[in-house]
Design goal:
By secondary structure, this protein is mainly alpha-helical. It has seven helices and no strands. The longest helix has 32 residues. The chain starts with 8 loop residues before the first helix and ends with a helix.
């Protein structure tokens, strides 16, 4: 594969027990953080926190799928990555719609809840990204898992910035702005994963 050199993780990752353990840790942590953030998003009335909660749920599903396909043929890993790419795009479209509703309602979220919860989420996602860093240049399946983890770290930093913006301005537009950024990140990453998976499928 063009992005993989000698002794790459393209072939090693699916059979590496360390990769499997890392995926299990990521799955559990993302499922727990989804529960925390979904409650916090309604408490704070924050669309950026809600977007991040839905992203945690999607990532938990992604890690579960990744674990399922580890022992399967490369064509099935590529097909799984293709499905996940479309899921990321669907998440982006959902966030765009929710942001439009939040803007029309004129809701001002609670910045302190946003800040503390996003800080906790950042700590979790940095840990998960560190676990998966070594596998970031694998096949489309491994690449999609890494991109999800990287996006989560960037998203948490953005939500923390939104919390500061809401606190400073007493308006809801920083929350909306960050939600739009998260949507754009999901759309671009989803498109990248889809293109990578389609190339692999043509080669299989």
């Amino acid at each position: 594969m063009s992005e993989c050199g000698c002794d790459s993780v393209c072939d090693a990752a699916p059979s590496d027990p360390r990769y499997r353990r890392a995926l299990w840790v990521a799955l559990v942590l993302n499922a727990l953080m989804f529960g925390v953030e979904i409650v916090a998003s309604f408490s704070a009335q924050s669309v950026s926190l809600l977007a991040d909660a839905v992203d945690f749920l999607g990532d938990a599903g992604n890690y579960a799928v990744a674990l399922f396909v580890l022992g399967l043929a490369p064509v099935w890993r590529s097909r799984s990555a293709l499905w996940k790419g479309w899921l990321m795009i669907g998440f982006g479209v959902f966030v765009l719609g929710k942001s439009a509703w939040q803007w029309s309602a004129g809701v001002v979220p609670e910045p302190f809840v946003m800040g503390w919860v996003s800080l906790l989420a950042l700590a979790v996602n940095v840990g998960v990204a560190a676990l998966l860093f070594a596998y970031r240049r694998g096949d489309a399946q491994a690449r999609s898992v890494w991109l999800c983890s990287r996006n989560d770290v960037l998203g948490n930093l953005a939500v923390m910035g939104a919390a500061g913006g809401v606190w400073a301005t007493t308006h809801g537009w920083p929350d909306i702005a960050v939600a739009l950024v998260l949507a754009g990140l999901a759309l671009s990453s989803g498109a990248s994963v889809i293109q990578h998976a389609q190339r692999e499928l043509r080669m299989n």
